[in-house]
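ok here's Peptidase metallopeptidase domain-containing protein, seq below lol
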Amino acid sequence: MMISSRASPLLLLVLFMFMFSPSSVLSKPNEQGFEFLKHLEGCHKGKNLKGVHELKQYLEKFGYLHYKNHSAHANDDEFDDLLESAVKTYQLNYHLNVSGSLDSQTVNQMIKPRCGVPDIINGTTRMPSGKKKHQHGPLSLHTVSHFSFFDGEPRWPADKTHLTYKFISSVEVVPLQTLRPVISRAFAKWEAVSQFTFAEVQPGSNSDIEIGFYSGPHGDTRSFDGPRGVLAHAYQPTIGVFHYDADENWSINPNTYQVDLESVAVHEIGHLLGLGHSGEPNAIMYSYFGRGQVKRDLQQDDIEGIQTLYK
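and the structure came out like this:
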């Protein structure tokens, strides 16, 4: 672009601000989150490659790997038997080729943004691969369920069907007047298919559920990791905690590089009610969630899950 030397200082300033403002160029964010796993593609048992210890941390974070008695291999870069077994279980859960090696398909799955709740909790071997349910009658169907529950199937007491929530954040990322209707709509999705009703209460009041934005280590057992990794997390009944990662790029109408507030809220509320992750990619309770993706409606697997837990 040619700019005349006679242009006024004000005009030059305006042009400069336009050329370099975030809205003038849609640039791809720097690689962060789980992108560190990319350079491990092709790694397999017997290899010793810098960064394998980060793969171990990733699989431990999401429940696949547990080194007992502080094994010497827990923090090194050796791709050992235990790591291979963990990779196989991960591949089985996400319907990938069960090779035990870090092939491109497995890496591409692992680097996607996701919920911070582990897939495997307290030693459960894996997520459901799909249990056939037979329905008899004029329209006999064979349906497959992929929903799961937390270990021990914690749930809200039978007489606790009205749950209250309040907003408490360590940093304001989204104005409350924007966040409030988003969360209300998300709760309404679950209210429509369960016995629960939900209502907001004021910050100073007692509540069953707390919702807010937090960054990095924030006083619970699951620290956030900055942008493009873990998006949010929630705890099982009756803990009642749901946190968004404040470092993500949140939106109510996301572009390619933003995350949809409402879609993530619907997912995390499922955890608050007692659902674990689903092996069904279309389900709300599927653990991975893409930037720019809008996924706000419960699927049959989600509905069957909540209704089975509270039948």
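fwiw Residues 1-7, 9-30, 130-143 have pLDDT under 50 and may be disordered. kinda neat tbh
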